[in-house]
Each structure stands twice: as structure tokens, then as C-alpha cells.
């Protein structure tokens, strides 16, 4: 689900401190120069026509020359598809690539479609968000050496892992055990763990947890369900169990995330003010003059 969109020229008059985001951030410099700072005090190289993606929890800040504006496109999504998620995590939480003129044209077309549905959503808007996310992921991975590597595993192994994840997602409310999922794809639990390690470099438990939290994040953002109901739908025994799991990953509670999301719409920022960090833990960083 698309959580945030900003498309236009900007200049950070007061600078920015490194901070984590709660969503995946795609960031492109369309025109002008900008750099990314991975720790406070760092002096990054300002670059033109660049495209980045950052995972939640990877602290960073955007830097300009302090005198000139630049055109940036910033898009936040609650999750990204495989294999982009794993390639980003393996690279330390972020990836980047330069943009050619054709790439920029493509990016602006994607942004135009997303902006229309972000500002005036309709029933089909979630499908446009999914399509835009896939196009962004493909654009970012074009030319990436790992993305072009042939699959070293058999089709059967990949099929069983994907089938296991699909079935688990379809029965999320029950929170099926690894043994139950293994029976569905006709392998033993130990063999299923080996398949997950080979195909996705993670255990079934880790990926099942990711599925549950991604579903919970989606429900938090687009429904007014209580935490108890969201926990039940995502296979948690209690809301407190869900909150502990969520906080362990995001470092704040689901109630905090939802409250700040609602605040963004019920108390819009004044004209000329842009949100710097959508759900920053630092209240003073909620606003910064454009």
C-alpha cells in the first residue's frame, strides 16, 4: 500500500538529521543535486539523476547544497516484493542506481498514475499502487548483478516454498504451524526448513512472521479495526502479543503508528510546510519549511 507521496522541488533550509522511516522509501532525484547521509555529521557527495530505496529501520537523511532547490520524487510503501526486500537487506538496508533520461521519463509516468490515485482514491486504486510498486522494483533492479543471476534451484523447490507462503497467507487467522504448512506441500517440517533456507535464505518462522506483520500494517492503515481484531485476523492470540511482535520489528507500537497516520490527515500541515519524516519519533521533526 502506498503510504506517502511527494513529487516536486524542495530545499532543506534547516538541514535534516538521520532518522529511520516506518515504511520502505523510494527516492529519486529528477533534476538538481542531492546526497544521502547515513550518519549525522557525514558529508555525502551530491549526485544528479539517482534512484534509491531504503528499508524501514535504515537511518538516513537527505542533503542538498543549502542554496538551490532540486526535484525529488519520494514514495513510501508498507512493503516491497521479493527479491527486492532480501537484496536490500543483504546490502545493509539500501540500494541505489543512476537514472538515464528514459528512466526518468518512466519514473514520472509511474508517479503521475500513483499521484492521481493517492489524492483521489477509487475502488481500483490498490491495484494501481501494486502495479506502481512492481514497476519501481523492476526499475531499481535493472542492471543489478544479483537480479540477473539464474536460479540455482529446481522449479519444484521454488514452487513448494511459494505454495507454502501462499497457503499460510490464506489461513493467516489460524496461525498454522510449520508442521501444518509442510503437510500441505507434502514434505516434512525439516525438509521445508531446508527449502526455505535455500530458496529465501530465511526460516519459515521468519517469513511467516513477516507475512503476519505486513498484513497487520495493511489493516492498520486502511481500516478502523481495533488492535484485538487485527491481532485475531493476523493469527496472534492476543493484542499484547501482536504489539510486542510489532514493536520488536518497528521499535514503536502499532497504536503510535496509527495515531501519527491519522494525525497527518486530521491536522494537515500549513501551506509551505512539508512532512520531513512521516512518522518520526522526534516531534520537532514533523515539519520543516520547504
Automatic annotation (TrEMBL):
This is Xylose operon regulatory protein. One of its GO terms (molecular function) is sequence-specific DNA binding. It comes from Lacunisphaera limnophila. The gene is xylR_3. SUPFAM superfamilies: Homeodomain-like, RmlC-like cupins. The keyword DNA-binding applies. It holds the Pfam family HTH_18. It comes from the Bacteria. Keywords: DNA-binding, Transcription, Transcription regulation. Residues 162-260 form the HTH araC/xylS-type domain. The lineage of its organism: Bacteria, Pseudomonadati, Verrucomicrobiota, Opitutia, Opitutales.
